[in-house]
Amino acid sequence: MIRVGVIGATGYAGAELVRILHGHPETELTILTSRQYAGIPINRVYPSFNGILDTVCEEFSMDAVCEKADLIFTALPHKIPMEIVPDLLAKGKRVVDFSADFRFKNAIVYEAHYQPHTSAYLLEKAVYGLSEIYTDEIKTAGVVGNAGCYPTSVMLPLIPLLKAGIIDEKTIICDSKSGVSGAGRSPNLSSLYCEAAESFKAYKVAAHRHNPEINEILSMQAGKAVSVTFVPHLVPMSRGMLTTTYGSLAKPVDSDEIRECIASFYKGRSFVRLCPDNQMPNTLHVRGSNYCDIGFTLDKLNNRLILISVIDNLVKGAAGQAVQNMNIMNGLDETTGLEFVPYPI
Amino acid sequence: MIRVGVIGATGYAGAELVRILHGHPETELTILTSRQYAGIPINRVYPSFNGILDTVCEEFSMDAVCEKADLIFTALPHKIPMEIVPDLLAKGKRVVDFSADFRFKNAIVYEAHYQPHTSAYLLEKAVYGLSEIYTDEIKTAGVVGNAGCYPTSVMLPLIPLLKAGIIDEKTIICDSKSGVSGAGRSPNLSSLYCEAAESFKAYKVAAHRHNPEINEILSMQAGKAVSVTFVPHLVPMSRGMLTTTYGSLAKPVDSDEIRECIASFYKGRSFVRLCPDNQMPNTLHVRGSNYCDIGFTLDKLNNRLILISVIDNLVKGAAGQAVQNMNIMNGLDETTGLEFVPYPI
Amino acid sequence: MIRVGVIGATGYAGAELVRILHGHPETELTILTSRQYAGIPINRVYPSFNGILDTVCEEFSMDAVCEKADLIFTALPHKIPMEIVPDLLAKGKRVVDFSADFRFKNAIVYEAHYQPHTSAYLLEKAVYGLSEIYTDEIKTAGVVGNAGCYPTSVMLPLIPLLKAGIIDEKTIICDSKSGVSGAGRSPNLSSLYCEAAESFKAYKVAAHRHNPEINEILSMQAGKAVSVTFVPHLVPMSRGMLTTTYGSLAKPVDSDEIRECIASFYKGRSFVRLCPDNQMPNTLHVRGSNYCDIGFTLDKLNNRLILISVIDNLVKGAAGQAVQNMNIMNGLDETTGLEFVPYPI
Amino acid sequence: MIRVGVIGATGYAGAELVRILHGHPETELTILTSRQYAGIPINRVYPSFNGILDTVCEEFSMDAVCEKADLIFTALPHKIPMEIVPDLLAKGKRVVDFSADFRFKNAIVYEAHYQPHTSAYLLEKAVYGLSEIYTDEIKTAGVVGNAGCYPTSVMLPLIPLLKAGIIDEKTIICDSKSGVSGAGRSPNLSSLYCEAAESFKAYKVAAHRHNPEINEILSMQAGKAVSVTFVPHLVPMSRGMLTTTYGSLAKPVDSDEIRECIASFYKGRSFVRLCPDNQMPNTLHVRGSNYCDIGFTLDKLNNRLILISVIDNLVKGAAGQAVQNMNIMNGLDETTGLEFVPYPI
Question: Does C191 contact chain A (CB < 8 Å)?
């Protein structure tokens, strides 16, 4: 049994992580921390856990965490992880971090979009936590920078096609749509029910911090500079994320070749599902699960490929992928504890 | 392993049942039938099942069902079950039926609200499938008439208090609220998104067919005639049901006694959760799970008890309770395969 | 033209009031105040108003308000109005107040549920702003305590029946359901989209501050003590409120007599619509309008009357009724500026 | 007063049209037809109209319509209008048609995406009902082919920029999102609440029939062939449509020039609102109104312009624009009867 701790257990991603870890057959959930709810049992914060889990949330203490856990999930806003992860690593712990602090190789890019990085020396060794892509590196990683939700939905369908030279990297446009839970649990005006319901809008247009994250990883994967246009939108639903990606074909291919390219790339990987010919992805079909469903259409008239991918932003986009990474780090089957069947509705 | 079949696998309750049975450690799901989708794999009807289950739905055939399954779930509209269940029983099968056909002891009451009953002779032996109440009878039942969703939410909190003589049975009013999935998957005007969203309404006021079901069972449990006023409402959400029940106190009791009455009655039963003092039930806290959460308040000024109960109408109100009944019928722990942790959101 | 000012223009009720007053043919909207958005044009706070209204919100100033407006709407949390209304009245202004501060005749009841009342001497002259009931008193009122949203939905159907002695006042139970906008625009956890969506719950069970308001007014109307059991619930929708009221019949009446009782009571009053025989009220049918739709059913088996009423909580439950009261105060037709046709969907 | 009739009054667009025409100061609504609800008053079909309008819907009859109305709105599925409009015109009536039947100049394109056109000779004279673009032609039109909802949202922001040569016509991608009401009132599986809620999906990817409509009109406006990639998506909300359009800059311009280009093009046109600098369009801000809000961002890194436009699909995307066209046809101010202030929430 892996002794695991969750730092920041009461945000939406943290709570979803607690839900998943509670049912994981190879982990023992030994410590939950929360600044806001220290001293309060997790089931008073989320009554869903009544009768299931009543661990009392604690203030974060390095000593307590290190004593009780060997693998630590840090589900915190950026900036805090860079301050505590070095100590965790120094004490021999392994870490999966949910923030952006360990996602970038290039500290300058990070600092241009976040703030000065106080542990930049760790970036070289940190592994980007996009499970299907960096599997080998994750196995031995000390700290994994869990991939962002938007980047996960954007990159899983794109990477095989970029690597195969099928899509023209200068033409990529990613139009993403996210449920409201992506904004977290902190009360703010635009997350209110009455502001979000019957409302659809774009936000941080071509200015979202996941854009440089996408560009850096795609460039590394493609072996050349990739800069995508990225526009996120807010959907009146709790969970779910869909990205529609557009790109011109770099060479003449038909639908079968595209299908084969993606299918063979993800062969043996359970969580990427390529939709059958007459279906298209729908956030409802992956809700509550760790799947990423991918579909595509060729717009032959305009020589463009249209890729559509969906994930549950709190699962494959956060807590689920974090556990998948933990599984890989520990030599478990990557699906262990993650075999949630999405509800039919 | 129990060989199980689902007759009517493609309605919402049927599909939810398939989801649950797929993950059940003691069952083998051997046959799915569907009139509308015969010949089509279940994952083409519900793409959530892609990569998980691709059983082809068949037209119902008595021979095929009896050959492949030993326990049969009939998730069909009323009237059809009464026609096929006798044959299933005759062939030594056991049945959990989702319709009203085997819920009533009194055929006259059934016929007053449904239609002539062609298997009325089975009603005496049929067991009402409210798992926590008829546990012993369910163990050996041939056919279980799975409790209706509204009746489940209404009766679980009421029965202990009626039995204890705490609530005046002549004063009971049940104001119920259900998500839209209760109306099923057949397209009809009032289930359309644009008709249901931003809409709240009562329907079948004091005229719903679950009312006589409630009255019959409560009368048997209380040992005297009970007739409740029952008003269902439609809530703009997919899943979930909440019932607010009002009744005058039949004798002076305080909150502790009420709490103790309910708590002791359900001691050892995992799926009934009594809310702690400062919490009240919320459909979100049981969504996707088999829990029934119960809370209450004493309106001392008016000498009334207010009971609040929530369930997921597709789980404890349908497919989950059906599997719970199957577990009981087979000597398994009633929670087997049903330990879903409700999502934090 | 009536010169009107809105104190507290940027909450949901205030903004709805601005929307209505902007289109009112007999008013000139001369001043908007907002503590939070002072210095900001109303259309930057609510971009719906772009191209329509760009009045800059001001900090509240007694002098500025009194100079610019003759009728003042105070859409503020309770406690503040009791501090400023006396001065407004002293300067010869008339006031429609949205808070509870001027709704009670009995200061002791107010103080038991709110806080000490610093202008209790005004309560005797203040008029309760339930337009259809206190029409004559409103005509000459100095300050109108606009009726609460729940009380409006509860009392409009009940008052005719109580006055006619049809309903037993000792048996009244009001089960109310409100959209999320009733909680206002201040960010708080339970108003977040992810907390409210797919969620239905009761709150402040038999402990809501609208309960004593209802009891006081109903007692005055009935001419004897009335104490109702009142339970509010939260519905996942933005606007709308439905109340289901239960009461035993005090004398034998049939449906026609009940219909006649309500219809004749509200004869000539445009905003109370009695549903035809085969329809029941639905919040969608009054959304955005000042209507209160009423339906009913006799539960003959249990000798109970079930009343169902719906309003838009921000219109008839707040801003619309406030304008209706203003119309009455100024000798206008009560429907002036309020003839919104609810959207078909 | 213009005597107007609505053929197909009980679909969502038809009913919205009835709502608008009822309040229009210059029209008299003389006849409503409905195949499904013939003989039934409109307020029994849409109880929102109770107390407001109780016109009985009739079966369509050419004689009755021509006797009672001078301007006829045909809110019908395509194919039926092409059969009845010739007769209406022959009798001297003017028509605003909601279907695709009179939107195309090129019958071959129409026939490739719909069916054989039986009144193709009318296409040359028919005017495309995009009010702000074809204003002059609409003034004298006999039949106006009211612009589609998606095309309206796509083209209003694009046309000024295409005409100014600012955007490269070979690079245009339109990612559109629509509320569920766009699918109409006919019950079908994908419009059910439980299928649409918590669901976001693309549909008819690069295969929607509004794509050739967009291409034809844009080509005419740009004076050269324009072929856009168009992908519609379904949003879990009733009303509202947002289109995100991407295109490479054809020449170096800055934000001010883009703003000026759009602003000057729509100078004096009330229903196009260009968002201020720090705001972006939101469907909630136009809900229930005839506005089209436009915002934009320059993605300088990639030399792309991102245009965002929102409309209410039932108003500016259907009934509202139809009335705007009627106003123009009759020499009225285009805003007559359409000055709805969108609700703050």
Answer: yes
